[in-house]
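Notes continue from the previous slide.

Worked example: a multi-chain complex. Inputs as given:
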Amino acid sequence: MDKGRLIARINWPGTTVLVFGGLAWEAAVRSGLLEYEYLPAPSAIALGWGELAKEGILGSDIAHTLISVAIGWAAAMVLGIPLGFLLGLSATARRYCLASIEVLRPMPGVAFAPVGLLLFGFSLKTEMVVTILPVLWPVLVNTMGGITGIHQRLYDVGRTFRLSRKDTILSIILPAAMPPIVVGARISLGLALVLAVVAEMVGNPEGLGYGIVREQQALQPDRMFAYIVTVGFIGIVLNAGMLAVAEALLPTSRQLRGEP
Amino acid sequence: MGGLTSTASGSVLVHGKKLDGPPDDVVMVFQDYSNALLQWRTVAANVAFGIERNFDRKEIEQRVRDALALAGLEKNAEDYPWQLSGGMQQRVQIARALALRPAVMLMDEPFAALDAMTKASMQDELLRVRDRTGTSFVFITHDIEEAVYLGDRIAVLKGSPGRIEQIFDIGLPAPRDQLSTRQLPKFLEYRYDVHQAIGRGHG
């Protein structure tokens, strides 16, 4: 992308507000307006971030959390999309399964952290126990909803052109359900990050979540905030990545893609 | 007639064969074009939708080109339906049906959702397409003037379930013109008669 277009794509009003917010925070701490022992100025956080990066801990922690996110999200997609398809296409399946889904869905994954610890101790598997179930739901529910939400008219069109069942699934159902499926995938990805970090705070002492807790217990607020900022930044990058994938895959208007 | 709903009683015969699904050579065009078009496909891909399984590539491309030309959509082949106005989207639907070169096209109030001016120009385009392809159209509408303007034969349906109340043979001159045809005394007579056949209130 040439420089002119890149500049045009940056959200100048939004960025300006963020920069001003950061500067105001810095000024408030330096002037003594905000005086909490454990609320550092952005400059201190930046220094702490630099320290962590130099020590190499930051890199390995990021890698660990990202792997956790990747596994949890991939498992959710591999389980959720086929199941969502089955439920979407079969009213019988829905009749039998929806009640169970409604019971399982509200259960907080974090509540299973102790279960995971008992089963797997301090390991990646414990994080998975916390992550997989909640992350499954957006994918499954959105896939199912994407299929049941297909307008009857599209089926009429398939019938007036005498499409076989197989062609109806491939040429009508699959493409029509794609936007909600992609939205479900994006939500799940963000959720996987949240849950991985939480699982690391509560269960498995590795990765960014553990980093936050470790620095908090060591009374190092600038390094703790550096971890928090890193988590936030990863969340932004993952979301933006999914939006880009959605734009490439789905040649529809943003509204039809389900984007805000 | 489109084979999409089942008969309430008796049976429907096409060329002497009983109907239990969409009959061959008959294609339906729906009123809600934005729900009937595949919003994720370009206009050209939409037009190809009905024929892409049945012919080789060259034939498909030719038919798509012809259908787009008939519907006046050559310039919009690579657009997406959601980028087009209502009238143009409806033309995409018509082009998609025309690609099949059907003997009969069923149209379920296709212009009801369009503004008055677009509706008028679509009516004339439809007549032009009819003249160029020789397709027969079964056109459902609540607009009596539209029926008289477009039709060679009008069947007035009444009651629920609808029964054919009366059939009119329209003897208006061709080609029809939005201004002059609609002023003809004969036009007004037909309009009056069809109105009477429907009776007070809706038919």
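Summary box: Chain A has twelve helices and no strands. Residues 44-249 of chain A form a domain with the MetI-like fold fold (CATH 1.10.3720.10).
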